Amino acid sequence: MRIGLSISFSIHAAILLAAVVVLPEPDKFLPVKEESIPVEIVEFSDISERVVTTTEAKTDPPKKALPRKVEEIGEPVPDAELAKEVKKAALEPQPEPTPEPEKKEPEPPAPDPVKELIEKVEKQPEAEPEPEPKKAEAAAKPIPVPRRKPKVPKSFKVAEKKPQKKKPKLDLNKLSALLNKIDDKRTAPRNAVDETGTPATGEIANLIGQDQKLTGNEIDWLISRIGQCWSPPIGMKESGAVIPRIQFEMDIEGNVIGTPRVTNGSSNPLFDVAVRSAINAIYGCAPYAQMPPEKYNKWRNIAVKFDPRIMLGIN
Amino acid sequence: MEVEIAQTAAQDGGQNLMELFWQAHIVVKIVMLGLVLASIGCWAIVFEKYAVIGKAKRANARFEQLFWSGQSLDDLYLTLGPKNNQTMAALFMAAMREWKRSQESVMRAGFQGMEKRIEKVMDVQLQREMARLDARLLFLATVGSSAPFIGLFGTVWGIMNSFRAIAVSKSTNLAVVAPGLAEALFATALGLLAAIPAVIFYNKFASDTGKIAAQLENFADEFSAIISRQTDERM
């Protein structure tokens, strides 16, 4: 018996060892990210999202690019907008923060072409024609280069040169329109407030009239925030038909009040599961403190569609 | 979010067998350990029985050759005497011992009582031999019939756990359910692993010992017939 036991034991140990060593680990299948996501992003929330990113990004690149551009192009010329702002600034001390964001608006398109131009200029003479005309037009104060915010206010020359500069602006817009269609919208409304959003308390008064444009931005933030807490049930992404629409109320601090309600229905058995997960997500990220209180009326009672493609895409 | 889910899945999901074991609930662990021990025991018995039954078969074959070779029973008794005899030889030795002891009483009481005693002695020896051969075979039968159920118990327990995990996390993600299911199925796999060889070898050894038992009984009958014939010739 002992012999049999020892043989048996050693064989078991060997088999177990072999199983641990030899058996390969199962392949980890990471969920494949849908390629459609970027498309959704562009369609849905591109404006607001880009504004946010550009305001952040603008500050960085300009610093790097500034010296060269300034040298090559000449002194930075304030845009028509800048001029207006400057005027405002002269009138009111408060709006000072606003001009900066405004300047940033035109910039987003500008940095890319400008950099490109600069690079081209450095590398190839071919690219020069483009920047040169601008220089010619603007003489000493050509194109976009609004980055030197401090300088602009210092040099109030702007007002005279507005007409001339408008042309270059148009060109820039066209260029930028090729890059981002968003710019059109930006140039059109030209609300400094839009991009700054909530930050300065002093601007609230200005903001009040422009609620609707702001809400797009805030709602995007809200949806992406909820999306972060949301784990859609299995199979929901595949069957896009089941999209619960849930309405809920918040107090001014962003806490959820009462119970969220489902405003649509479906006989699909997945629907109940999806609704539950959606409500969990709403409670899960509950205090939406970043929602601007001055627009409380706009977002107090809000309905969110839990479409996995959009919600997760925003993430 | 997708990435997070994937990460948690990578952390929770057992990748190899050892992880699968260590992540399991304590009950499932006990079940798995028990099944592994049962499997070890089964194979130990299998090896032992294989040796014992093989030896018994060979011993029987050798003894029958000797027995039917025409040698006189007394000579055979003397040659086998000092050895550690098994099965058929043991039956023969028990009968011969009884025969020798009965030589004196035969004078007074006749051969009737002696034949009966020899049959009884051979019967007892046969029972002993069969008990030795059958020993622990029942363990194989028990494991073969109960191991699947024990494994099933572990499986049910693991599945219960994974359902509780669903309830707690309020998510039906596969990442939540999968670890529990994996360990649960692992328990059933171990149960089957222990049970299948146990059943196969139990059937094999049961039929082998049955054959040996039949052989021994035949020999006992034949030998008592021979003794009966010899006593009749002496009268």
UniProtKB/TrEMBL annotation, chain B:
Keyword Phosphoprotein (UniProt): no
Membrane-spanning residues: 26-47, 137-160, 180-202
Subcellular location: Cell membrane
Cellular component terms per the entry's GO annotation: plasma membrane
Main location: membrane
Segments forming domain MotA/TolQ/ExbB proton channel: 99-217
Keyword list, A-Z: Cell cycle, Cell division, Cell inner membrane, Cell membrane, Membrane, Transmembrane, Transmembrane helix
Entry-linked Pfam families: MotA_ExbB (PF01618)
InterPro entries named in the record: ExbB/TolQ_transport (IPR050790), MotA_ExbB_proton_chnl (IPR002898), Tol-Pal_TolQ (IPR014163)
Family to which this protein belongs: Belongs to the ExbB/TolQ family.
Record protein name field: Tol-Pal system protein TolQ
